[in-house]
Amino acid sequence: ASAIYRADYQAPAWLIETVDLTFDLDPAKTRVLNKMRIRRNPGVPAQALRLDGDELNLARVMVNGGGTSFKMDGSQLVLENLPEGSDPVELEIFTTCAPAKNTKLMGLYVSEGTFFTQCEAEGFRRITYFLDRPDVMALYTVTLRANRHDYPVLLSNGNLVDAGPLDDGRHFAKWVDPHKKPCYLFALVAGQLVAREQKIKSRAGREHLLQVFVRPGDLEKTEHAMNALMHSVAWDEARFGLSLDLDRFMIVATSDFNMGAMENKGLNIFNTKYVLASQSTATDVDFANVESVVGHEYFHNWTGNRITCRDWFQLSLKEGLTVFRDQEFSMDMAGTPSARAVKRIEDVRVLRTAQFPEDAGPMAHPVRPDSYIEINNFYTVTIYEKGSEVVRMQHNLVGRDGFAQGMKLYFQRHDGQAVTCDDFVQAIADANPGSALAQHLEQFKRWYSQSGTPVVQARGQYDAAAQTYALTLSQSCAATPGQADKLPFVIPVEIGLLGQDGSALPLQLQGTDATTASQTLVLTEATQTWVFTGVAQAPVPSLLRGFSAPVVLDYDGSDAELLTQLAHDSDAFNRWEAGQRLALRYALQAVHADGAVATDILPGDFVAALRDVLRHPTLDAAYKDLVLTLPAESYMAEQLDVVDPQRIHAVRESMRQQLAEALQADWAWAFDTHSATGAYQPDPISSGRRALTGSALLMLCLAARTSGDTAWPGKAYQRFKDAGNMTDRFNALSALVHSGAELAKPALERFHALFKSEPLVIDKWFSLQASNCDRGGQVLPAVKQLMKHADFSLKNPNRARSLIFSYCSANPGAFHRTDAAGYVFWSERVLELDAINPQVAARLARALDRWSKLAEPYRTAAREAIARVAAKPDLSNDVREVVTRALG
Ligand code: B3K
Ligand code: ZN
């Protein structure tokens, strides 16, 4: 397949006004009758109608009730002789497809005996011939017919207008969606399902029915999802004045799903992982994820569905904005400033460990890409998370109220349309004429067009005599594929100044009267200098507060400055960041040092500072846990030009062991004082306590490794057995496994026996073993053995991710082996998965994105493994694009 370019966009020559679909559902052969009313798009030169199709069997085509000539061009159905003129044309297309054989899980497929659909991005063409592009929006009527016994529940978008029995034990249901939509938002579900239901009244007084459908037996695990949905509805009304526009809003869960969830109009389909949650089977992280994904899909109802994308290059229009909205929702739900900061830190961690590497690697692309081969490869952390950061900068540049005004204008202008990223930022700027965003609008848009992570270098100069502090900020951005030279970005840099004792110094820009505690400098040139006056002492700068822009900050502050920030910075993000910077600094020194990895990498004053945080009387446990967590190996790797993954792993392990031993008494104190959390609640305070207790337990078990003490592993085993919730149970199990305790084996066996009928828990069981700390190369053989386990299946994406991805993508210390066996394993799994599900295979293929930075012997071995995959002649477009770019 060849590349598609954004610059080639053309408006559709034909429009589809209405679609009337009738399904006779049968797993082996489903019959689809598609009646459309279409018309020529006025203003676009007359063209033949070219409808997309994929793996369909075409039985009949009729135009205005009679036969017609047509031809096939590849997989497209082409009608060249449609009536001239502007009158609507009735088109009838009759096809069949085979849902039971659909292992790609795109289009119509069967999961555990239930029919589901997934149409985004280009799955609708696997259901019927259509103009499968988001700028063609139509009104849908859908009739579902199926055997009543096997498929008692028949769902589609919108409102149920008719239902009843048919001959031969069959029945039907007819659904009408009152809203125009692009076909990627079409959905149907048919099977044996039960629902939790809730009636709600909106602020505006309208009544709605909320439903969460799951398999019988899972109903008691849906309370949290339903609560999250109700909170989402209320939040969007309160924060943005956006109300639910449907009588009925449904969520349905399936265990076979390529990603997290899908925002089909009024009928969201979810991976069970993001719906089901009970205290005995789900961790605090799972509970938080359910809330944020339920929110995310619900928020798409306005940002994505009411206003959609003109073309798939604009994907971040809906995804970046909706991630921003779900992040804000989670923060508002979390409540306290400290809990907000914890959420912000978690989001930034994802950006740095996943998006920064993507933006520096062979798959780097702008937030609004210029070309792609397979659109499924562009549902990336850049489109989602960096896209959200770009929206967040707009929010911060115009302020919270200004942003709400901008959103209002966006809906006034574009409701019901398919638009572009430019249209969005234009609306935000136009609603805020005096803002820095409006002032620098054209330049700001470079965030959408230029890929790569900018580096901001900061240098400060204190003049004691003049009592001034001059801060010079310079920006640069390295070349990325297809983009050799970058122009300067608009970079909001929020700053504060600290005194040597850590107290906040007032900020007064030269030439202004006002003083503030914190200020946002807007860097637009390659280099700019700001001078602050009335600075009574040499300050410690607190730069890029709250991570005000998605950049790498290069500031060579002393260890002492960072220790001051770690102890005192009033910006919670930068306080955490100071600790991370110090840890990173020591880690990189140890990576570069000669000889064996030292056991005392961290200096005493840093360890003492971490102890102070751990023992701090008022900081939240969740925040402490983040401060005490060392930067990830993948983040360390990004700082280096040549990466030795084993050296990095050894350094991080040594640092962790040092913290475990040096703070042993403090960890014991933390465990003892936080381990009783009372009746289970997944709120931020109690989940923070559980997180800190879990970390403490792991540290204590690690310390026990060298001391030979068996008390803590014993305690961990006891806690694992007695825990009243999955968070405590799984943390205790993880502590045993990651510390290599002898009790890990019996605990794992017991865990499996306890939860063998809970697929999402069995996923955790696989994942834990695949992400185990590698001591002597035992992880790969264990993973290979687990592939033979009766519970393993490559066909189920969750299961494949839990074992294969956990090993290849999330366990660098075990994956990068000097004997290359990890890479060989990777290439075999990529090929095996590609024959089943190309989307999932292409994700796995990205595990070796950063191969060219690897030290030898890893580099050559990794390239050979990629070349072996690329040598296969019949690869999917998905995997072909990833490996071609990697070798590029
Ligand atoms: N919009 C879907 C993602 C669809 C992915 C298709 N390959 C989920 C979401 O972002 O909400
Ligand atoms: Zn989304």
From TrEMBL:
InterPro entries: Aminopeptidase_N-like_N, Aminopeptidase_N-like_N_sf, PepN_Ig-like_sf, Peptidase_M1, Peptidase_M1_dom, Peptidase_M1_pepN, Peptidase_M1_pepN_C, Peptidase_M1_pepN_C_sf. Residues 20-185 form the Aminopeptidase N-like N-terminal domain. Keywords: Aminopeptidase, Hydrolase, Metal-binding, Metalloprotease, Protease, Zinc. It holds the Pfam family Peptidase_M1. Residues 452-556 form the Peptidase M1 alanyl aminopeptidase Ig-like fold domain. One of its GO terms (molecular function) is zinc ion binding. GO terms for biological process: proteolysis. It catalyses: Release of an N-terminal amino acid, Xaa-|-Yaa- from a peptide, amide or arylamide. Xaa is preferably Ala, but may be most amino acids including Pro (slow action). When a terminal hydrophobic residue is followed by a prolyl residue, the two may be released as an intact Xaa-Pro dipeptide. It is an enzyme of class 3 (hydrolase). Residues 225-444 form the Peptidase M1 membrane alanine aminopeptidase domain. Residues 559-887 form the Peptidase M1 alanyl aminopeptidase C-terminal domain. Its EC number is 3.4.11.2. Its cofactor is Zn(2+). Belongs to the peptidase M1 family. This is Aminopeptidase N. The gene is pepN.
